[in-house]
Structure formats: structure tokens, C-alpha cells
Write a structure and sequence with these properties.
alpha/beta; Rossmann fold; 6-stranded parallel beta sheet; 16 helices
Length: 355
């Protein structure tokens, strides 16, 4: 049996959909299971043995029709028995259409049900603390009627060499490993997904005042100026607890560093999803224009906590479309003052700093 799982999107989606491969491997230990992803996301899949081959959707496939045709041809030549399309966009529709697979599973969408043998209705509400996004993905396995207990927690594999690298790096920066180390996801992938910089400084001051801790900043190189603004906005005493320079040169280095941390606090995004996959407690701030019910995974009020402005000021969202909220995200963010977050953040820190 040959199975192809398709998830062309960002790191969080690729991690969640790796659960499909994990469960398929348990159910069909002798099957060939391939996973189609964007080339930029492969670092979070290293060491995962649930799939046999990574089918990489590269930039050349987007820009060059001939390269894309060659990719389609190579997939057809594999003669897959089953395709699970968790991406479900034009790029994957064509893959499914030309694949020749006997069984093709995806989400129901008006006007393209003919592409698939099984069209699954997307769940609108979550029945557990797994999070809607995970429940939706696992529902794609329903047509296969797998006789197994489903794996529900995506994981990232990390090597001893990577752990040794992180230990050496932290030691070389004088990080006292007897103290709790907190990774701060200070920036989102864009400003529309980033808690206001001056508010983040106040949040970091609050964290630093709770105990003698090590504070690390996570940000992309292009966000250095914003990171400096946050750092400069902190109190002088807080700055003594921050190491501004331990960021990691690539995703695998970040993963290794995160594995050495005790928890993560900050903006929702890939850094948070990777931390969760490493088993780290998380405290997440969602952007006003993001519907948190999808990505508030494993929410239990203790190990994984997330906050959204709508929970505090629902009246601001009345009669507002998602498009309007995104366009005016800075105005909504201004209403999400740090004082609203402090009680929940205090409870989270009280729990995890004493462990």
C-alpha cells in the first residue's frame, strides 16, 4: 500500500498534520507513507520515522509550469492507493486530480467534491482540549476506519548532539542552569500578529519581577530593531535577566535552545507550536484578528494557557468582520492592555516557576 499525505503550509500546520503520518504508520506498519510539504518546513520533521519520503513542494514548482508538471508526473508514477489532502488548495487539487489514487480524502468544499472519494465536513467546535485544528486533521482518518488508539500530540525529535549544542551555547553565555529559563516569543510573523512592543516590555517586566529567571528572546533577524525596542523599553533590573543574543541561526538551533528552556510565553506562531511539540508549557497571546479556537491546542488552564482580547472585551468585536479586525488590528491591540493579562500570567508563572 502507498499513501500520500499533503500539507503545504507553515510549520504549525505541518506539525499538526504529521499526526496523520504517525497514525497511519501505526495502522499500516508496512505501507509506504510519503509526506508532501513546503521545503521551508522540513526542519521540524527531521528524525520523524512515520513517513518514508518527503515530497518537497519548492519555489520552482510555483514559478515554473514545466517543473510543476514534472512533479505531478512523478507523483502519478508512484501509483498511490490513498491520498489525504489536508491542504486542500489549488496546488494540491491538481496533485490529487492527476494522481490516479483510488481513495482521495479531503475536506468538503462546494464545487470540488468531485475531486475526492471522501469529503469530510470541517468541525466547527471542539469536543476536547486537543484544539479544533487537531480534531479537524484527525477527522481525515475517519474514512479509513483505523482500528487503533489515535496519537493526538505532535512531537519534534531532537538528537543528543543538538542537546549538547544547546548546553554548550547556554553555558558559553553564562546562563545559570539552576534558574528557570523562559523563552519569550516577542514577535509574531508580522506586526498584525505581534503584541504591541511597549506592552510586551511591560509584560517582560512583570515576568522578571516574579523571580530570578533567565529570559531569552525569540525573533527573526529582520525583526532586530523591534526586538531592541522591546529590550530598551524594559526596566534596568529586567535587562540584567535578559540574554538578547541567544536566538539560534536556524530552526534546528532554535529547537535545540527551546528544548533547554522550561516554558514559552508570547505571541502565537511557529515558535509556540514547536515549543509545544517539545512538551513545554505555553502562555500565548493571540492576535485580535485570529480565531483562537483553532490553534488553542491542549488548552487546560495550567500547562497551556492562551488569551484573546475577545474574552475580555467582546463588545469591540460586535458587527465587525474578520477583514475589518485585521485591518484595524493596531486599534484592537491597544485595548489589550497588559493589566488584562497579568492575573492569568501570574497564575501560570506561579505554577511553573515553583516546579
Amino acid at each position: 500500500m502507498k499513501i500520500l499525505v499533503i500539507q503545504q503550509k507553515m510549520i504549525g500546520d505541518v506539525l499538526v498534520s504529521s499526526l496523520l503520518c504517525d497514525n497511519l504508520r501505526i495502522a499500516y506498519p508496512n505501507a509506504q507513507i510519503d509526506y508532501m510539504v513546503y521545503e521551508s518546513t522540513i526542519e521540524v520533521l527531521k528524525g520523524n520515522t512515520s513517513f518514508d519520503n518527503l515530497i518537497l513542494f519548492k519555489e520552482k514548482h510555483q514559478k515554473n509550469k514545466w517543473e510543476y508538471f514534472k512533479l505531478l508526473k512523478s507523483i502519478r508514477n508512484e501509483k498511490y492507493d490513498i491520498i489525504i489532502d489536508a491542504y486542500s488548495k489549488l496546488e494540491s487539487w491538481l496533485v490529487v486530480l492527476f494522481s490516479g489514487a483510488k481513495q482521495k480524502i479531503s475536506y468538503w468544499k462546494k464545487g470540488r467534491t468531485f475531486l475526492y472519494t471522501d469529503n469530510i465536513e470541517r468541525k466547527k467546535t471542539s469536543n476536547s482540549n486537543l484544539g479544533l485544528i487537531i480534531e479537524q486533521r484527525l477527522a481525515l482518518l475517519d474514512p479509513l476506519k483505523l482500528d487503533i488508539e489515535l496519537e493526538t500530540f505532535p512531537t519534534i525529535k531532537i538528537t543528543q548532539k543538538e542537546r549538547d549544542f544547546a548546553t554548550s551555547l547556554l553555558n558559553s553565555h553564562g546562563i545559570d542552569r539552576s534558574k528557570k529559563t523562559i523563552m519569550l516569543s516577542i514577535m509574531g510573523s508580522s506586526l498584525e500578529k505581534t503584541y504591541p512592543l511597549e506592552y510586551m516590555s511591560k509584560l517582560i517586566d512583570f515576568i522578571a519581577d516574579k523571580g530570578d529567571v533567565n529570559l531569552l528572546f525569540n525573533y527573526m533577524p529582520k525583526q532586530i530593531q523591534e526586538a531592541k525596542t522591546i529590550y530598551n523599553g524594559c526596566k534596568e533590573e529586567t535587562k540584567t535577566k535578559i540574554d538578547f543574543t541567544i536566538t539560534g541561526k536556524n530552526i534546528r538551533e532554535y529547537i535545540a535552545i527551546m528544548d533547554s528552556c522550561d516554558m514559552i510565553i508570547g505571541n502565537d506562531g511557529g515558535a509556540i507550536n514547536m515549543a509545544k511539540a517539545l512538551g513545554k508549557p505555553s502562555f500565548i497571546i493571540f492576535s485580535p484578528w485570529i480565531d483562537k479556537k483553532g490553534w488553542a491546542t491542549f488548552e487546560d488552564g495550567i500547562n497551556h494557557v492562551s488569551l484573546h482580547l475577545k474574552e475580555y472585551k467582546p463588545e469591540l468585536f460586535e458587527n465587525k468582520t474578520d477583514k475589518t479586525i485585521k485591518k484595524e488590528s493596531d486599534l484592537f491591540y491597544k485595548e489589550f492592555v497588559p493589566a488584562l493579562l497579568f492575573p492569568s500570567l501570574n497564575a501560570f508563572l506561579t505554577t511553573h516557576l515553583k516546579k
